[in-house]
Specification:
Layout lengths: L22 H4 L1 H4 L9 H6 L2 H4 L6 H14 L30
Length: 102
């Protein structure tokens, strides 16, 4: 059963009923990097990615993060910078990082 999470203050982000399949099951690689497995939707959206995940993400987790940002979080109640789709340099796996010029 799917519910409307409204502002996301009470439903859990990773295991809540707001998504058809709990996100921890849909994105297991990404979930393995999460710092707060029982955070609310609002906590996840209101905090930087670094507050939600241990760095650096694996390539599989990075792919799942891209899908999560693109598919799952494309909702009208998303008021967070997470919707930009950009993955900070430190969140990218070492294999896909672009060299930094100084």
């Amino acid at each position: 059963m799917k519910c409307d999470p409204s502002r996301g203050n009470t439903d859990l982000f990773w295991s809540g009923s707001w998504s058809h399949t709990p996100l921890k099951e849909k994105y297991p690689h990404l979930f393995s990097f999460c710092k707060k497995p029982k955070c609310s939707i609002r906590f996840f959206l209101d905090n930087e990615l670094e507050a939600n995940f241990s760095l650096s993400l694996s390539s599989q987790a990075t792919e799942q993060l891209s899908l999560l940002l693109e598919i799952e979080l494309d909702r009208p109640w998303v008021e967070s910078t997470l919707t930009s789709g950009a993955i900070p340099l430190e969140m990218q796996p070492l294999a896909v990082r672009q060299p930094t010029s100084y």
